[in-house]
Amino acid sequence: MHNRVVVIRPVWLPSKQANALHTVRMCEAFSELGMDVTLFHIPSPTFDENIFQYYDVEKQFTLKSLPRGLLPFRKAFHLENTSNILSAFHGFLWSGFVSRLASGEKKVGFYYTREPMLAFWLSLFCHPVVLEVHNLHRGESFFIRKACVRSKVSLFITITEHLKQLLISLGVPGEKIITLHDGVDARWTSFSEKIGQTAARERLGLPIDRPIIGYTGSFYYARKHYRLEKGIPELIQAMACLPSINGKEPLLICVGGPMEAVPSYLELSRQTGVPQNRIQFVDHVENREIPYWIRAFDIAAAPYPNLDYYAYFMSPLKIFEYMAVGTPIIATELPSIQEVLTHKHNAYLVKPGDPQALAAGIEVLLKDAALRRQLGEQAASDARKFTWRERAKRIIDEIKRRDI
């Protein structure tokens, strides 16, 4: 296998989006493992900072720019409904153009992408392709079926076991699929050894003696016409049920934005009788600052509701970030979560969509320092299996094993 990987991602970089961070960290991990990495991306029109500075990249790689489009309207990489046929057609043409452009790269070991449409085109140009699947949108099944019968699409990566089974149902041979959950920066696994909780709180201007329940990441999952909440409403309602702990008022801190959602959360807190001194919202912060916030928390929360997307199609970065920093986690017992977290082993799991159960779990953890320490230490130990470097190594090993 040639020691070269070409990554193609039609996303703006830099970006606040988790999928952009995923892309950059995987490129950095491949590079750390000795691969010659080229990332094709769309330069962001809204960020002046370069990619390596924004994401605090230590091992740099080659960047190449892609055009935002070929036609004077938006592009899409799957057919949501009949209203976006032109956008999907644009995406199809753009994918073909980009695949042809990238095919000029020399001595490539494999191409790596997350778009089935791009994998289809790359395979037509007879390039070895690794396709990573994070969801299964309408219209993508066609390209996955077409791609899976071509020998050049040699490896499919899914982020949950449910997604793996869906690909098998579409005709992808099981031996071509591996499940790899998302990851975390290896530097974070030693963060708690360097920075204590008190130091983190002092740096952030947070109260030293109050019990803090924290949440990091975007406040909701935004779609074109609607949004999916990620559990913040349940957290607010849970705060209404929590008693004082050793005479100290608990504090909920949600970090990540967007702040446009905050008025509705404040209204919910008013309706449920949560004092405003019990909740605090912080806008997006740079990824390098996130471990300080997580270290400052007594409990890190991931209370996802029981929706199909969260239950079967996600591998949330926050879970691995919480684990790496060693802050005890409270999360909901969804199938996707339970592929990584186990109740009373490396996290405390509660019933989804139940603020009372969430509050009860938080209270158990706040009153049991030994349990918090046990869960945090185990999670930190487990996180070492989920670094971006380990993830990239597994992909390279699979490709070598298959002699692609």
Describe it.
The protein is an alpha/beta fold and 404 residues long. It is built from 17 helices and 15 strands. The strands form 3 sheets. It has a 7-stranded parallel sheet, with helices on both faces. The protein has a 6-stranded parallel sheet with strand order 12-11-8-13-14-15, with helices on both faces. The protein is globular, with a radius of gyration of 22 Å. The chain starts with a strand and ends with a helix. The mean pLDDT is 94.
Strand content: 15-25%
Shape: globular
Number of alpha- plus pi-helical segments? 17
Helix content: 40-55%
Low-confidence stretches: none
Structural class: alpha/beta
| Average predicted local confidence, pLDDT | 94
Number of strands: 15
- CA distance, first residue to last residue: 7 Å
The main β sheet shows up as: 7 strands, parallel
Supply Rg.
22 Å
Spatially, the strands of the biggest sheet line up as 3-2-1-4-5-6-7
In short:
This protein has helices spanning 18-32, 51-54, 85-102, 116-124, 140-148, 161-169, 191-194, 197-204, 232-241, 262-272, 290-296, 308-312, 317-325, 335-338, 355-367, 369-383, 388-402; strands at 4-13, 36-43, 62-65, 110-113, 129-133, 153-158, 177-179, 212-216, 220-222, 227-229, 251-255, 279-282, 299-302, 329-332, 348-350. With 404 residues, the chain is an alpha/beta fold. It has a seven-stranded parallel beta sheet, sandwiched between helices. Strands 12-11-8-13-14-15 form a six-stranded parallel beta sheet, sandwiched between helices.
